Request: fold
Amino acid sequence: MVQQTHNRGSGQSDLSDLGTLRATYYHTMLSKTILTLIICFVVLALLLFGSRFLSLPLLTLTLAGIFSLIFLIVLISCLVLFLRYRYITVRVYEHGLVATNREGWTAMRWREVEYVWHKVDLQTPDPNFEIDTNRLAYIAYDHPHSASWSNLDYVTHTEATKGSSILKHAYVLRAYSGLSISIPYHFRRWTRLCETIDEETARCQFPAARSLFQQGKPVSFGPLLLHRDGMYYGQDLLPWHLFGGFSVDEHWGLITITVRGYARPWAWLLLARVPNVALLKGMLATIRDTLGRMRLS
Reply:
């Protein structure tokens, strides 16, 4: 369900500056409910046809009546679910999006978005379990030649993924005004929806971030900081001439930063801790292109 810091819509005129409607994303439960309804109608029709036009034994007719009752219960349940989820949508426009639930709707323009987080909640059988990525990152930094380090980087994550662990994804948008919208993964074409959010918000945020960087001012991405000297993770600095790569595992919600010439990570942290990852990728690509041109010249 779309969760939002509520802002009930007061009229269609409030959405006039959002531009053309590009796509509408529906809750997956709505599609499943509609499919189940169709199946119920087909099965119920077959049962009625068989009981009316075919000479069936009494036992068969009794079973047909029982199954008909079961399907009627399922049918009523599906109708209730349909009425519940039909209003839960995310509509993407040219200049923003509108998240709708049963209580109302919330509009957010791309230019109003300050932060975008990709939250990945790892639910494990052990409620006290936590992935200590800071510990792992500093083990790599303080002991770069440790023979056992390669076994330490994913050991905690491996333990977390055992048993009945469940990964829950959500995209969280927060505007400069404090308004926030949380979009869980229970939407059809959720990946495409997230890609659109990333592309549009990064496009609006990039000019200001590039201007800050060119002025020699730091650009913050949660625990990561981009500066002319390099990338900071906490108090640790990775100079740009040693920067190797930046990779994101969207499924497990992990970010890996490497040193040039080394396979081991310089830092390993949770994706949920780093806002505006799409903008961060764009900034890193621009910085690498600039450094490449400087080396050639």
Notes: Confidence is low (pLDDT under 50) at residues 5-13, 131-164. The helical segments are 28-53, 58-85, 133-142, 149-152, 155-160, 190-214, 277-296. Residues 58-85 form the longest helix (28 residues). The CA atoms of residues 246 and 257 lie 5 Å apart.
